[in-house]
Write a structure and sequence with these properties.
Strand order of the largest sheet: 1-2-3
Shape: globular
Helix content: 40-55%
Distance between the termini: 69 Å
Largest sheet: 3 strands, antiparallel
Number of helices: 14
Strand content: 5-15%
Order of helices and strands: EEEHHHHHHHHHHHHHH
Radius of gyration: 23 Å
């Protein structure tokens, strides 16, 4: 793809934009406005808009072509619905709500949600870790138990070291119903062999690891079955959880700080012991 400048018949190499994802042709009277835009060869506004689903576009932005089996798109769409709103108890959504109450710009609320929801405790990096575990270990619970030991080839990261087997809830008591329901739904849609095994082994896995499975673990398994890389899975997990953060930030912006969930619980003198003098 090239942006035409001046009157030269051929663009300068410095004006070329190298991407296999997107190709634009300019309008005749404005080289900075697109006449047509293609995603992986598909005419976005001439063919896709009005015919394709959001999940089709999402897949094409991440992968070079649409899947051969349409059920894979159904699996990704079902996962997107499940992840769309982590709920106000989730730290990433809570951060967005705080931004909304404080009157921060819309972008600040979403950035807050991304920052808080990026880590290794239920966040996107945990999904990356769990997908990497699936790549290295497969459905092997014994190998999962030893996955916390860092490999000599692992890169140095900005994240804290792993403190629990990824995809499991270090503070959970039992596997929540939504986690079981999501695993069952994705297995019913034919997500892949990993989800089939995980769905059949939920209780066995929780017993072996000593922790209940979390929704991040189901998402990681499904994304692995769909053929996404850990880096792609991490990005998708960040992206797909933003709608709920946006909605709750807008709601809290409208109702104000006096109606902020958990506010009274945190500041009620009866529930907060006084510091020693």
């Amino acid at each position: 793809m090239a942006i035409s400048t001046g009157t030269a018949s051929a663009p300068s190499p410095k004006d070329l934009i190298h991407t296999a994802i997107w190709h634009e042709t300019p309008e005749a009277d404005n080289p900075f406005a697109a006449h047509s835009a293609r995603c992986r060869g598909y005419d976005v506004h001439g063919e896709m808009v009005g015919r394709a689903r959001w999940v089709d576009m999402l897949w094409l932005l991440m992968r070079p072509e649409l899947p051969a089996a349409p059920r894979q798109l159904d699996v990704l769409e079902a996962l997107a619905v499940a992840l769309a709103n982590p709920g106000p108890r989730d730290p990433s959504v809570d951060a967005a709500m705080c931004a909304g109450i404080g009157g921060s710009p819309a972008a600040s609320a979403l950035i807050a949600a991304l920052a808080v929801g990026a880590g290794r405790n239920g966040g996107a990096r945990e999904v990356h870790d769990a997908m990497t575990m699936w790549q290295r270990c497969g459905p092997d619970l014994a190998a999962w138990q030893g996955y916390l030991v860092a490999s000599a080839g692992d890169p140095v990261e900005v994240f804290p070291e792993r403190a629990h087997v990824p995809g499991f809830d270090p503070y959970g008591a039992g596997t929540p119903l939504p986690v079981r329901q999501l695993a069952a739904t994705l297995a019913g849609l034919g997500a892949g062999p990993g989800i089939d095994w995980l769905h059949a082994s939920l209780d066995q896995a929780a017993l072996a690891i000593g922790l209940p499975l979390a929704i991040s673990g189901v998402a990681a398994c499904a994304l692995h079955d769909l053929g996404f890389s850990p880096d792609q899975g991490e990005m998708l997990y960040l992206l797909l959880r933003l709608p709920g953060a946006a909605a709750h930030a807008l709601e809290q912006q409208a109702v104000g700080f006096k109606h902020f969930p958990f506010y009274r619980l945190e500041l009620d003198p009866a529930a907060t012991p006084k510091e020693a003098a």
